[in-house]
Amino acid sequence: MAAIANLGTPIAISASMKIAIPIWQSRISPVFDVAGQLLLVDWADGREVARTVRLIDETSPDERLKKLAELGVETLICAGISQSLEIALAECSICVIAGICGDVEEVLAAFQTGRLDEERFSMPGCCGQRRRRRGGCRRQGLSEN
Q1: Which residue of 7, 49, 65, 138 lies most exposed, with the fewest beta carbons within 10 A?
Q2: Rounded average pLDDT per 10-residue block, the chain, 145 residues
Q3: Is residue 98 in a domain?
Q4: What is the CATH number of the domain that holds 56?
């Protein structure tokens, strides 16, 4: 079984996992609720094996939730997200890692090596709060420190 470190703790994966990141140019989009593009990254055995970029024109929270579920997303890494959408995703066992900003390639490398807790990935204006993890993270094997 492979493990990917995330915020200093491992996410255990048995075969593969799909990560979604809302993007704008080469950076994480400021707000998932209105992002126009989504980077989908497939992981297997602790490494990236495929990636695609999808336009997302679903505008309502319910439509976005349904789209992520249809795409098989297990983890969403994002900057800002409405609380209601974050809770709905968590209820569908999609792990939400919010409050993350920066260059997409750097964020992916940090996710893989468990360094997303570095200050440079912290969204400005978070009043010193650490990243939030909600939902399916624990069900996927993510344990709190």
Answers
A1: 49
A2: 42 69 96 96 90 93 94 96 95 94 95 90 66 46 35
A3: yes
A4: 3.30.420.130
Look-up of token digits 């336009």: 55
Cα separation, 10 vs 37, whole angstroms: 27
Question: Which amino acid is present at 119?
Answer: E
Domain contains 109: yes
> Which long-range contacts link 87-93 to residues 24+ away (Cβ below 8 Å)?
87/134, 88/61, 88/62, 89/65, 89/134, 89/135, 90/134, 90/135, 90/136, 91/135, 92/65, 92/68, 92/135, 92/136, 93/135, 93/136, 93/139, 93/140
Q: Classify burial at 24, counting beta carbons within 10 Å of its beta carbon; exposed 0-12, middle 13-18, buried 19 or more.
A: middle
List all residues 6 or more positions away from 92 whose beta carbon is below 8 Å from its beta carbon.
65, 68, 69, 135, 136
pTM of the model: 0.80
How many domains does one find in the chain? 1
Please indicate, yes or no, if residue 144 is contained in any of the structural domains: no
Residues spanned by the domain of 26: 2-134
CA distance 138 to 145: 12
